[in-house]
């Protein structure tokens, strides 16, 4: 649950006045709820949010994202071709979670459409699987409506790229998507959020996730909000591969605990939730069987790999200092935003939750949820076998003179 990046100069701060919503079409706008968003200026002493505005006098002012939605009754639209419940749009389909959602949906017989930004390397693997790929960009609201035609359910797995300002996709883009979904009569909206996002308003991404939750709840759409703790897949590149390649593994000295979950399990539980009408308009938390510290994960990887890790520990105090330093420069604001997230993940925080009630609600047996030990054991068993086979093959092709 992390990331960090290359930079662009962020856009100038928006004004404090409400911003007029995009008009999708005259008929669609008439049928939509009155949704709006605004950036409010509040005194710095009232909040702990990274500054993006000018300082005047003794008290600086900071931009904070807030949202509101006033629903008005929709106009009855003329009857048309019914939308099949199996028609879904996956936003963020090329990501770690998104691709597992697409794979699961296709396996279960859904008609899957994937919203993908135009890119130099096309997402051909999605087409190869059997999904339909449509070009669209959340940062360009005019590209969204056409992608929603004939869609019953939106599954929103998207987040901004590391090099993008966090607000561009994760806030402005999501607001535009929710507005279009409401205007075009989307039947269900599934939104993936972050566990504990309501407890850390000082972290821009978590504040935006929480604000988007509230915006969606007030939009009039039928929704399911799923808060996630962490993905097991992310540990492969962060710990497993560097250990195997005898490279440095980066960790912190903080006792943060995260209940990692396999994204395949997240996708499976998501579709169970989508089919259960009792879960409509609910907020769920998905957490793995056990919460792990960074050191415990590294120790597990060392044992399974059969070799020691070269661990470089970054003190939390360094992260805090770096974040404070990057606040002083406009072009490093986004670095400060992402360091704030890393700082929370490096503090004495537990990203976990009891799952018994959720399992009962979904009708799932806890024994069917993959543990981190099993996930990493399967990975190391497979990768070490492949390395052994490659080594054997290389010996067979050796030529001696």
From TrEMBL:
Q: Which Gene3D superfamilies match?
A: NAD(P)-binding Rossmann-like Domain
Entry GO CC: photosystem II; plastid
NmrA-like domain span: 87-336
- Matching CDD domains, A to Z? SDR_a5
**UniProt keyword Membrane present:** no
- Residue ranges for the region (Disordered) are 1-25
What UniProt keywords apply to this chain's record, in alphabetical order? Photosynthesis, Photosystem II, Plastid
Q: What is its main location?
A: plastid
Question: What's any GO biological process attached to this entry?
Answer: photosynthesis
Q: Where in the cell is it found?
A: Plastid
Which InterPro entries would you find in this protein's record?
A: HCF244-like, NAD(P)-bd_dom_sf, NmrA-like
Name the UniProt record assigns to this protein? NmrA-like domain-containing protein
Q: Which organism is it from?
A: Acorus gramineus
């Amino acid at each position: 649950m992390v990331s960090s990046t290359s930079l662009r100069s962020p856009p100038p701060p928006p004004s404090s006045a409400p911003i007029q919503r995009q008009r999708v079409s005259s008929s669609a706008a008439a049928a939509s709820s009155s949704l709006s968003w605004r950036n409010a200026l509040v005194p710095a002493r009232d909040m702990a949010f990274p500054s993006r505005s000018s300082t005047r006098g003794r008290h600086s002012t900071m931009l904070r994202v807030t949202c509101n939605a006033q629903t008005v009754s929709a106009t009855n639209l003329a009857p048309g071709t019914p939308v099949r419940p199996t028609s879904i749009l996956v936003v963020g389909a090329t990501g770690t979670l998104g691709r597992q959602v697409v794979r699961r949906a296709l396996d279960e017989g859904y008609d899957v459409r994937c919203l993908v930004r135009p890119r130099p390397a096309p997402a051909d693997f999605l087409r190869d699987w059997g999904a339909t790929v449509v070009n669209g960009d959340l940062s360009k609201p005019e590209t969204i409506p056409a992608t929603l035609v004939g869609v019953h359910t939106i599954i929103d797995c998207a987040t901004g790229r590391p090099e993008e300002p966090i607000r561009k996709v994760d806030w402005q883009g999501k607001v535009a998507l929710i507005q279009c979904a409401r205007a075009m009569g989307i039947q269900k909206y599934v939104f993936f959020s972050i566990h504990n996002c309501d407890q850390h308003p000082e972290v821009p991404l978590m504040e935006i996730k929480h604000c988007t939750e509230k915006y969606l709840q007030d939009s009039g759409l039928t929704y399911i909000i799923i808060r996630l703790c962490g993905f097991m897949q992310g540990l492969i590149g962060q710990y497993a591969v560097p250990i195997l390649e005898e490279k440095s593994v980066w960790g912190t000295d903080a006792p943060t605990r995260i209940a990692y979950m396999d994204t395949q399990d997240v996708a499976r539980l998501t579709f169970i939730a989508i089919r259960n009408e009792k879960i409509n308009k609910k907020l769920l938390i998905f957490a793995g069987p056990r919460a792990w510290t960074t050191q415990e994960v590294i120790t597990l990887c060392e044992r399974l790999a059969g070799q020691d890790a070269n661990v470089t520990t970054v003190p939390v105090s360094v992260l805090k200092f770096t974040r404070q330093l990057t606040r002083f420069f406009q072009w490093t604001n986004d670095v400060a935003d992402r360091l704030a997230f890393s700082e929370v993940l490096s503090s004495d925080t537990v990203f976990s939750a009891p799952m018994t009630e959720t399992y009962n609600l979904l009708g799932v047996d806890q024994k069917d949820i993959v543990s981190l030990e099993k996930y990493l054991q399967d990975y190391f068993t497979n990768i070490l076998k492949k390395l052994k086979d490659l080594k054997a093959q290389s010996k067979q092709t050796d030529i001696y003179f």
